[in-house]
């Protein structure tokens, strides 16, 4: 089904105690969409991504990945995934890249990249190693395969984390401020890899404060405010005449 959304989120809500952090968020990503999620700190961007890959469980709403709805059940008055098997499957379809890299420090870069395909997907190790080398070439760190994460710069570690996520052949890549922890001179090398992925047609949801990425690479921009989508649209509209006052004020802070 060519027109099935890769990712569809319908009216998800999430509270922590009395604090409703997500107040009804909906979004649809079709094949090749690159969606930038912008918003002030505390607006719920990370919680939104974490609900999509089930690191948090939304209280209400629907999440569909590549046409498959994540089934929920009620337990003790709260939402829970109905099937751990489905959770594992859905997670393997969503590549996640965090601000803090999160590589396994006791494993080499190559081991980090093949871990998921070998142990989760149960694919033959030799093929995974070959693909891992190709992925490391693609992100520009072919020479770091046998190094440990601590011996890499932050930009190299983040590119390794992207390679590790890609090794699972995800349907959608989720990025949560992938360049926010990097020294300024290392941001560009990570954004270049992300841009190349976008140009290859990867479906991506990117929480970022990099306005140049939002403007020039993504095909849709979503502006979150206090747990809701305040406005969204094509970057030309969002950064042009279509900007709402709230969004204009927000991106003004980033020199937009
Ligand atoms: P953003 O990524 O946009 O900065 P977050 O999704 O991290 O926003 O956080 C949104 C709000 O939810 C914040 O007020 C934050 O303190 C709160 N929050 C996030 N995670 C938790 C948690 N596990 N427990 C309680 N409050 C949380
Ligand atoms: Mg965040």
What would you say this structure looks like, in words?
By secondary structure, the chain is α/β, with parallel strands linked by helices. The chain contains 9 helices and 12 strands. The protein has a 6-stranded mixed sheet with strand order 8-9-10-3-11-12, with helices on both faces. The protein is globular and about 50 Å long. The mean pLDDT is 95.
Task: Tag the structure with descriptive keywords.
P-loop_NTPase, 256 residues, four-stranded antiparallel beta sheet, 9 helices, binds magnesium ion, alpha/beta, binds adenosine-5'-diphosphate, six-stranded mixed beta sheet
Associated small molecules: adenosine-5'-diphosphate, magnesium ion
Strand content is 25-35%
Radius of gyration: 18 Å
Oligomer: single chain
Q: Order of helices and strands, N to C? A: EEEHEEEEHEHHHEHEHEEHH
**Distance, first to last CA:** 39 Å
How would a crystallographer describe the biggest sheet? 6 strands, mixed
Percentage of residues in helical conformation: 25-40%
In the predicted model, the low-confidence regions spanning at least 5 consecutive residues are none
Number of strands: 12
Q: Which term fits the overall shape?
A: globular
> Which strand order does the major sheet show?
8-9-10-3-11-12
Secondary-structure content class: alpha/beta
Q: How many separate helices?
A: 9
Kindly report the average pLDDT value: 95
Keywords: ATP-binding, Cell membrane, Membrane, Nucleotide-binding, Transport
GO molecular function: ATP binding
Family: Belongs to the ABC transporter superfamily.
Membrane topology: Peripheral membrane protein
């Amino acid at each position: 089904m060519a027109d099935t959304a890769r990712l569809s989120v319908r009216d998800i809500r999430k509270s922590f105690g009395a604090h409703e952090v997500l107040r009804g968020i909906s979004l649809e990503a079709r094949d090749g969409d690159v969606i930038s999620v912008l918003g002030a700190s505390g607006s719920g961007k990370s919680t939104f991504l974490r609900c999509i890959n089930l690191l948090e469980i939304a209280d209400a709403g629907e999440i569909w990945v590549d046409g498959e709805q994540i089934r929920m059940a009620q337990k003790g008055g709260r939402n829970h995934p109905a099937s751990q098997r489905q959770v594992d499957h859905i997670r393997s379809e969503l590549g996640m890249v965090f601000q803090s890299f999160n590589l396994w420090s006791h494993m080499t870069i190559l081991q980090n990249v093949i871990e998921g395909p070998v142990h989760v997907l149960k694919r033959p190790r030799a093929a995974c190693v070959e693909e891992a080398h190709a992925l490391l070439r693609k992100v520009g760190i072919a020479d770091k395969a046998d190094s440990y994460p601590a011996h890499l710069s932050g930009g190299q570690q983040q590119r390794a984390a992207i390679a590790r996520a890609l090794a699972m052949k995800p349907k959608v890549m989720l990025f949560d401020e992938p360049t926010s922890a990097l020294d300024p001179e290392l941001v560009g090398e990570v954004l270049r890899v992300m841009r190349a992925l976008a140009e290859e047609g990867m479906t991506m949801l990117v929480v970022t404060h990099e306005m140049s990425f939002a403007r020039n690479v993504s095909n849709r921009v979503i502006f979150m405010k206090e747990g809701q989508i305040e406005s969204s649209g094509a970057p030309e509209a969002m950064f042009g005449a279509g900007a709402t006052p709230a969004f204009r004020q927000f991106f003004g802070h980033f020199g937009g």
